[in-house]
User: Fold this.
Amino acid sequence: MPADRTNSPGATAAPSDSPPGGKEAWRTEEIVVAVRDLTRKFGHFTAVDSLNFTIKRGEIIGFLGPNGAGKTTTIKMLTGLLRPTSGEVTILGYDLRRDIRQIKKHIGYMSQKFSLYPLLTARENVEFFAGISGLPPAKIKQIKQELASLIPPALLRLKVADLPPGIRQKVALFTCLLTDPEIIFLDEPTSGVDPELRRSFWSLIYELKTRGKTLLVSTHNLDEAEYADRLLIIHQGKIILEGPPEELLQRTGAPNMEELFKQAIISHETS
Assistant:
């Protein structure tokens, strides 16, 4: 993965439109993402319904829910790709509606479909995204060298569409990290890969945590739930349960994560 860079967004001075107290003052606080009554409607359908949660610096949040629960819609709102119908979001003290340009300097996003151009090679994808991120030529050269140290040359020459899923996954994460973001949103990053590759990918997520990153990882794979520091379980657009995995198991008396998830869904649907 791209190494930490001294000229990363996190190392810049506070901009003129910093939140009260300045950006450096905000860094001393634990909460880096605060979501209040976040709602998104599509016509008469409410995809995300008044979500309230916070994320602390350095946490790995497991955003757990079945397909269609509202995970992707929520992440798209948090990354500025989709405008909320109502509600408030602050990220690193910046208001999502007013300060999205500042926020985008500090976040990374890996979409459900890997965000890569399938007809370009891995190297070409990295060159393209590094270029539009405004990285200087010397930095792009360094990044390409880093990529070459991670992926065999023969695979680097293949189009992304022809790469094995695990390698595609690594390239997509590498691309997500080009600007060395402080907060990283990963939307179903392990979808469609086998359990061994999922465990390997979570090792990369833990590595990012050791570098001080904060991550929200959405998934519908229950075997991944216990990897997170804290879970947000979402169903039908609402958060129905949240807390550290072990604490949730103790609180509910569920013998395992599968039973915990089943109980939460049934309880929500019958309430």
User: Anything to note?
Assistant: Confidence is low (pLDDT under 50) at residues 2-28. The domain at 39-113+178-270 is CATH 3.40.50.300 (Rossmann fold).
